[in-house]
Amino acid sequence: MQIVSGHHSEIWSIDVDPEERFLVTGSADVELRFFTVNHELNEDHSVSDVSGTEIVNNGDKPSPDKWQILKQFGEIQRQSKDRVATVRFNKSGNLLACQVAGKMVEIFRVLDSAEAKRKAKRRLHRKKEKKSAKGAVEVIENGDIIHRSEGDGNNPMVTVPDVFKLLQTIRASKKICSICFCPITPKGSMAALALSLNNNLLECYSIESSANTKTVAIELHGHRSDVRSLTLSSDNTLLMSTSHNAVKIWNPSTGSCLRTIDSG
């Protein structure tokens, strides 16, 4: 149906929000790229695009861009220089997590269309004030002021930074292997995010509007590197496992770790 080009390097992850308004791609370069999703319109129905303009399908003749499912919306620059490993929206679609191939996860807030329009209006207003402060001259044709591609004050052009705002950054102690949002939003926070680290740790973070807190971690049971040997005691009551940097004694009946001995 459509081939989307324009990425400068290979795409490592892709996701769409639950309402299917936006599709985001993460690659090896420092930008996250966003596309708006164009849903096929039924006859005698109309929808609004992201800028609030009504699109009507009259059903008589097909639109020239009928097969253009994705329309380029724009890019935002990431904080980390590492390549993207995973991009994921949460279940409600108000947060976007970008995990890089390192120790960092960037959390973006996704504003709804009303909030995005208000932000675009404020941005346009600040730009006008800045222009007038510098004494800039507006371009006038036939007495009308022209705002190129910015939209007017009542219907401003919504851009990617108006919708996606960097909320906070999570830095883990070790390299992150994968991330996952909890499908249930905990009380008193915006979301819960689980991280799987490459040293066999699991960490869960609570994401609030101003900060994030590590709420729970599973870090004591398993080895931090590959298991190299196993042996049972003569009466089968103890199991010993050895790895690159530790010896662990287990109860084979319950599976619980009884003792960890650090080893060179």
Automatic annotation (TrEMBL):
Signal peptide: none
SUPFAM superfamilies, alphabetized: WD40 repeat-like
Keywords for the protein's UniProt record, in alphabetical order: Repeat, WD repeat
Pfam families, per database record: WD40
SMART domains in the cross-refs: WD40
Tree of life domain: Eukaryota
WD repeat segments: 4-38, 220-260
Presence of the UniProt keyword rRNA-binding in the record: no
PANTHER family: WD REPEAT CONTAINING PROTEIN 3 WDR3, WD REPEAT-CONTAINING PROTEIN 3
Protein name stated in the entry: Anaphase-promoting complex subunit 4 WD40 domain-containing protein
